[in-house]
Design goal:
By secondary structure, this protein is α+β, with helices and mostly antiparallel strands. The chain contains 17 helices and ten strands. Strands 1-4-8-7-2 form a five-stranded mixed sheet. A five-stranded mixed sheet has the order 3-10-9-5-6, with no helix packed on it.
């Protein structure tokens, strides 16, 4: 008789459960199994069930756990595991999550949290999980351990994966790199990423504001613009700027990323939408991008003009055709390398609220020649 597969302790970000899972179906791409936490962040603990009998094990399962960090361990009472998802690929396991969250204190020092848990299955069997070590790091230590971002390419890859395991400590050095490079500094999507990420972590935003005093003027102005756009106070540093620098601060800002008017700025706003997704892992930016797939008719008109040998006039309809193609390409490309994006697109495709034309486009992202890169 085969041995029964025992559940394993799984640690995931709180936003996975509160923001991501409600928007997608029963089967999901595996979230990041977290090993580190920083001030302002919260974690959730769950049990990963594998093996042929996992469905029976999960049903009615309960869990209690303990987090040992300070002298007095924090105990979480035994409760039913209330959030359950089947993991891809091919139902590799079932992850069931405890209803409560554990948050690191804003003033936490470098330490190691030890998590132990007990899962009780429906048949009354108790299984001890752990111990599991989680590194609690101050922003300073996390920055030191994370190392420098080597170049713009490394920065871009880090930003694209940020939502999988947010590391707010590195937002400050990332901002320094962005400010130092004119191409990055002038790109709205760079600022949008920082605004969205800092908005998610007020503790990191406060630390950045305090450290701006020791930065150069250009960094101060950019950082204050980020804080302002994220909804935070810029006092007292903003009041100390020169009159000219105050005007420069006023000139910095972001367009509404969710404005899909087909003007010349739409491409930049589409990039901003991707930055919001990369920073937060939320579905709303992808919903907005998929709306552009309803412009298929404009794309077909554009192609007909090209085939006739005429030069298409740069009208709103022409731009819709172009941005339809760009949206389809970007959605397909990101979904191939980002499991959460793929899950979101599948959920949007299945939603009864999705436009029939958009649904058809999502079903044919891979085979549609209009979504090939590069775009003409």
């Amino acid at each position: 008789m085969a041995a029964r597969a025992m559940p394993q302790l799984f640690v995931l970000g709180d936003s996975v459960v509160t923001d991501e899972w409600p928007a997608i179906g029963e089967t999901v791409s595996p979230p990041q199994d977290r090993r580190q936490v920083e001030p302002g962040q919260c974690l959730r603990f769950g049990a990963l069930f594998t093996g042929a009998r996992r469905a029976a094990q999960v049903k009615g399962a309960r869990m209690g756990f303990e987090v040992a960090l300070d002298k007095t361990p924090e105990k979480f009472a035994d409760k039913p595991l209330d959030k359950t998802k089947i993991l891809k690929p091919d139902g590799a396991g079932t992850l069931a999550v405890y209803p409560g969250k554990w948050c690191v204190k804003d003033e936490a020092k470098d330490a190691t949290a030890t998590i132990t848990a007990v899962v009780t299955t429906a048949d009354g069997r108790q299984v001890k999980l752990g111990p599991r070590k989680i590194a609690v790091k101050t922003f300073a230590t996390a920055r030191k351990d994370g190392g420098d971002l080597a170049d713009a390419g490394a920065l871009g890859e880090w930003m694209k994966k940020y939502h999988m395991a947010p590391d707010p400590a590195r937002l400050l050095p990332a901002m320094r790199m962005i400010v130092a490079e004119p191409g990055l500094r002038e790109a709205a999507n760079s600022m949008q990423f920082l605004v969205s990420a800092y908005k998610r972590n007020p503790v990191a935003a406060a630390e950045m504001r305090d450290r701006l005093v020791d930065e150069d003027t250009r960094m101060q102005i950019y950082g204050l613009a980020v804080l302002k756009a994220a909804g935070y106070s810029t006092a007292p540093l903003a009041g100390r700027l020169s009159t000219d620098d105050k005007y420069r601060l006023m000139e910095l800002g972001l367009e509404d990323a969710y404005d899909t008017q087909p003007d010349r700025g739409l491409g930049g706003r589409m990039d901003q939408l991707w930055s919001i997704f990369f920073a937060t892992g939320k579905i709303e930016p992808l919903r907005k991008l998929t709306e552009l797939l309803a412009w298929q008719g404009e794309y077909e008109k554009l192609q007909a003009i090209k085939k006739s040998g005429k030069k298409p006039p740069m009208t709103a309809g022409t731009r819709r055709g172009i941005f339809y193609s760009v949206a389809g390409w970007s959605l397909g490309a990101i979904a191939q390398e980002d499991g959460l994006a793929a899950d979101y697109l599948d959920a949007i495709r299945r939603s009864p609220e999705t436009n029939a034309v958009v649904r058809y486009q999502l079903e044919h992202l891979d085979g549609n020649p209009a979504f090939n890169y590069p775009h003409e």
